[in-house]
Amino acid sequence: MTKISNKVVLITGGASGIGKILGQKCLQKGASDLIIWDINQDNLDAVSAELRREGYRVHAYRVDVSSLDDIKTAATDVLAEIGTVDILFNNAGIVVGNKYFDEHSHEDIERTLDINVAGVMHIARVFIGGMLDKRGGHIINIASASSLTPNPRMSVYAGSKWAVLGWSESLRIEMEKKNSNVQVTTVMPSYIKTGMFEGVTAPLLTPLLEPEDICNSIIEAVENNEILVSEPLMVKFLPLLRGVLPARMYDFLAENVFEVYNSMDKFIGRNGRNVEVAERKRDNAPLSGAVEEKEIEPLS
Predict the structure, then answer these.
(1) Among this protein's residues, is 157 annotated catalytic?
(2) Partners of 61 in the beta sheet?
(3) CA distances, 137 to each of 94, 97, 115, 127 (Å)
(4) Residue 187 forms beta bridges with which residues?
(5) In this structure, what is the dihedral angle of CA atoms 40, 209, 215, 109, given to the nearest 10 degrees?
(6) CA 201 to CA 271: how far, in whole Å?
(7) 276 — alpha (psi -120 to 50), left (phi > 0) or beta?
(8) Backbone Cα Rg of the chain
(9) Looking at 39-91, which runs of residues are DSSP E strands?
(10) What CA–CA distance (Å, rounded) separates 230 from 226?
């Protein structure tokens, strides 16, 4: 079992959305230190000030998780100033939706993979050594229900999340083979009810998740060393359905019965527009939540 009390917790994309909620819950569980990485300086300042006023030890770092230099620099500072990270939530990510693959720019593809795949791996890599040295730790990788099923207009995003699932599960088995006592949990939520996926159509039997509820499920999973977290219930059946049904039959059901394949057709995103990768410049401007895509996770 993983105890959060008296542990150092780091959350990427932790200044908004479910990252912020997870941080609050870890502090309420008695975490000694909360480290927040986020690209939005305004959100970082506001959240860290709010939590410090409540008497918590909070450390805020502006980090672009698509930049290996940023990751290495911030990790060096964290290890020197605070020490080994005990619990790591790889929560930051980006989504570019409502586009067919041929409509994506090369920049869309590169930025999505840099943040959702390479960033997740690099961040785990810079902190896992300390966990191994201490013979204990927990890495939580926020993937997506899109790790389990195709979805048109989400091909780049879905591809990145399939990669996260494969890597995260492989990492878990490696840690078990090393008898490291480093736990790995992979979270695969469907759409979460926030503004980031404004206009998305919830598939049949897959209601939009409440942010508070999915965060409670994640915290419970961490405390119980659960391997996989799939929410809501219908997501748990996706691997079975895809495994036993012929591909064309699954496609028919996904499109015409459950309407998974149509869920992004009316997506407009926060503030009435799609979240575009190209808009996320490496400056200090607010990013419309793009780095905190865990506010709402597609079923795709």
Answers:
(1) yes
(2) 37
(3) 26, 34, 23, 10
(4) 142, 229
(5) -40
(6) 17
(7) beta
(8) 18
(9) 58-62, 87-90
(10) 11
Confidence at 294, pLDDT banded by 50, 70, 90? very low
Catalytic residue among 56, 61, 100, 157: 157
State the number of CA atoms in the 13 A half-sphere of 295 facing the CB: 22
Q: What is the pLDDT of residue 31?
A: 98
**Residues pairing with 140 in the sheet:** 89, 185
Token pair for residue 170? 């492989």
E strands of the chain, at which residues? 8-12, 33-38, 58-62, 87-90, 137-142, 182-189, 228-231
Domains of the chain: 8-295 (3.40.50.720)
What angle do the packed helices 68-81 and 120-134 form, to 10 degrees?
Answer: 30
DSSP one-letter string for 168-224: HHHHHHHHHHTT--EEEEEEEE--BSSGGGTTPPPPTT-PPBPHHHHHHHHHHHHHT
Q: Is 292 helix (H, G, I), strand (E, B) or coil?
A: strand
Q: What are the strands, taking DSSP E only, across 78-178?
A: 87-90, 137-142
The structure tokens listed for 238 are 């996706």
Specify the range with the lowest mean pLDDT, choosing from 27-36, 102-111, 174-183, 276-285. Answer: 276-285
Q: How far is CA 30 from CA 8, 27, 56, 141, 265, in A?
A: 10, 5, 9, 21, 43
**Rounded CA separation 75/47 (Å):** 20
Instruction: Decide the pairing of beta strands 137-142 and 33-38.
Output: unpaired
Band of pLDDT at residue 205, cut at 50, 70 and 90: confident
Tokens 């401007």: give the residue.
Answer: 285
Among 72, 68, 111, which residue's Cα sits nearest to residue 93?
111
Residues 37 and 59: beta-carbon distance below 8 Å? no
The CA distance from 138 to 181, in Å, is 9
Q: How confident is the model at residue 68 (pLDDT cuts 50, 70, 90)?
A: very high
